[in-house]
User: Fold this.
Amino acid sequence: MTYFPISIPFVAYCLCLCVCYTQARLHHHLHHNHLDHENKHMHLLLSPSYPPYKCNGDGIFDVREFGAIGDGIEDDTNAFKEAWDCACQSQSQSQSQTNSPILLVPHGYSFIIQFTMFTGPCQSPIIIQVDGTLMAPDGPKSWSKNNIHRWLVFYRIDHLTIKGKGLIDGRGQQWWNLPCQPHKAMRFLMCTNLTLQEFKIKDSPHFNLRFDRCISVHIESIFIVAPASSPNTDGIHIENTKDVQIYNSIISNGDDCVSIGTGCYDVEVKNITCLHGHGISIGSLGIHNSHALVSNITVSDSTIKHTKNGVRIKTWQGGYGAVNQVTYNNILMENVRNPIIIDQFYCPTKQCSNQTSAVEIYDVKYNNIKGTYNVRSPPVHIGCSNQTPCRNIILSKVELFPVKGQPALDAFCWNAFTETETITVPPIHCSLDKTL
Assistant:
């Protein structure tokens, strides 16, 4: 057997390699165990079967604490749902708003949300504090195919307040040129004691705010904006809703500034500025021979600029029911096409057949309506049903002049019992004989 001499330095070198290899293997093993642990933890975070966060008890539910990123790219829908569930289940120490649980949308972040239904009833009054930006998915291809008709829905919630200095961005540009624009909106269904204040909404794909079968709605200092050419972007639409106050807000859009549908009672609109769009409307009512009833509506101290209509009541032929106790007071018109209009022959397609029944319109008063109109249409248009004349239409301090340099137009009346309490401009001498 042949022996080779082995030096002490060589042995030390080999021992060093063995130690380094062993440490490397141990580090590799620990590293993979750590990654496995992190992957399992991430799986728990993302899995709907294992809620990753426990509802805290401090009363403020920041969506970032529930996994929301807020970078305007990632989908934060699940985080909002979990934050809402916690806030809704939380119970305040009293019924005062100062102690209500708050779902916080923090300033400086942009959160993308798919269709989400915020459902009550909740344990106590609840606040959604919108200081950041809520964003809809960007265009039809980004929307969930199962929920293309809805975006943010609030259902059966009592004492909900949505407020803040933030923005709700509907990103509706890609929807407006489609042949059918679904009702993607902030929709409130069967809610009570609602308060909305301060925040801004822009570029809704369809209606901005819609209220159905709600009771006690207070809207204050809201700013809604969309291009004048954007179709069906009604600012605030209410239907089958009563006890509503809409105050101190600015709405610039492509359709009705405020629209009041059937089943609405005790509605006050005050200090509103409407820009572009179609003005403030009651209706349309009575479509498809349906019953409609609207009563006790007051619109006051407001400005309407560069719109298609000013204050309008519109009904379809063939409907039935009534519109009554409506007051328009202190309204300034600036370059409005139809400042005062009652139209019981409403038909946007111009292909409607004549029908005998109509939604009755009576007890409507216009007081201190002043400003300028575009001469493409008469400044006052009161067109009522042949079988159901409008009754007790009272006008006082109406002064409407053509835009500078344009000729004045006469008022138009058809089948209406009107009464003028003061001299009006233009003169309105078209009332039916009261003995009829």
